[in-house]
Amino acid sequence: MEDSVKNTELETHVRRAGELLAKCRDEVGLRIVGQREMIDGLLMGILAGGHVLLEGVPGLAKTLAIKSLSEVIDAGFKRIQFTPDLLPADLVGTMVYRQQTGEFVPRKGPVFTNIILADEINRAPAKVQSALLESMEERQVTIGDTTYPLPDPFFVLATQNPIEHEGTYPLPEAQLDRFVMKLTVSYPTHEQELAILRRIGVEHEISLRRILFKPDIRRLREIAERISVDERIENYIVTLVASSRERITPSHGYARYIEVGASPRATIFLYRCAKVHALLDGRTFVIPEDVKAVAPAVLRHRLILSYEAESEELTTDDVVNHLLSAVPVP
Fold first, then answer.
1. Max mean pLDDT range (174-178, 185-189, 200-204, 278-282)
2. What is the DSSP string of 104-172?
3. How far is CA 195 from the centre of its chain?
4. CATH number, domain at 65?
């Protein structure tokens, strides 16, 4: 009887959470045409408690989508345009000498906010990336001799261009691994592009309402944590990630395409994202389709492909699909 009451209560919370997230999606949709997967991915990353990397050619509304989502969420927002001459102090802040008192005082940088839009993140040099890495992983910043906690919640929503490599610095694997998901943004359909054409000059005049507040984010995370995961699904998640590390003793044909597999952090994020995907779908439990739906976004930036994969012109998405087809579904 008690379990039945708890299940009914959870179903009510999941339904209300779905309605709230649908409102967020619809509100952003007033300004962004299509790109449903990108918007859902951004929401999923926020509820999973991590950072999201968007990759796509210029002009696909990556920056506009993040800015629009930040308007729907009642939280602090800063945009940082990453450039080759950016310094760590421009990001995290620095110590400033105050002549009146003869003391050095900290001047906090733009990273001290809730949502960071790291635009063209791969254009900044290694020192800037290492400064950002502490913020992303530890949720803190060290200025001088003092470490300062960052506001809660804290998200880095980053963009990068996959086709332009001049003046760029590839993100280190350690930093890529800190992103919950890497979303690839595709071109719009004919109908969507026609709708974009008819909105010329109007999209920036559309004001968006605040839908999601900080307490809502905390509550949604708690609801997502309560989504049940069967033991067989847990084993499926672990097997899926562990199978990407079979290069030494391969038992599947796809193993020769992977030089370095995904870390246990991928297992954790795959587990969290599967729960959030179930929540977005209005369910109180995870099914294998939830895991398969989020696996490409969670794994594509964590696999390092072998020379053989490159010679056959395979992408990480191709290899992830091989992986999904090879591992038995419970």
1. 278-282
2. EEEEE-TTSSSEEEEETGGGS-HHHHHHHHHHHHHSEEEETTEEEEPPSS-EEEEEE-SS--TT--PPP
3. 27
4. 3.40.50.300
Same domain, 178 and 106: yes
pLDDT tens string 116-173:
888 888 888 888 888 888 888 888 888 878 888 888 888 888 888 877 666 677 787 8
Strand partners, 158: 53, 118
* Residue-wise pLDDT tens digits, 52-109: 998 888 878 888 888 888 889 888 888 988 888 888 888 888 878 787 777 788 888 8
Average pLDDT over residues 304-327: 83
pLDDT, residue 252, reads 60
Whole-prediction pTM value? Answer: 0.86
Helices 62-72, 2-29: inter-axial angle, 10-degree rounding? 120
- Largest distance between two CA atoms of the chain: 70
Could you tell me if 99 and 39 lie in one domain?
A: yes
How is 248-282 classified by DSSP, letter by letter? SS--SGGGGGEEE---HHHHHHHHHHHHHHHHHTT
Q: Which domain covers residue 278, as residue numbers?
A: 227-326
Average confidence (pLDDT) over 229-257: 79
Total number of domains constituting the chain: 2
Whether residues 189 and 234 fall in one domain: no
Q: How far apart are CA 268 and CA 238, in angstroms?
A: 9
Evaluate whether residue 1 is within a structural domain. Answer: no
Q: DSSP label at 30?
A: T
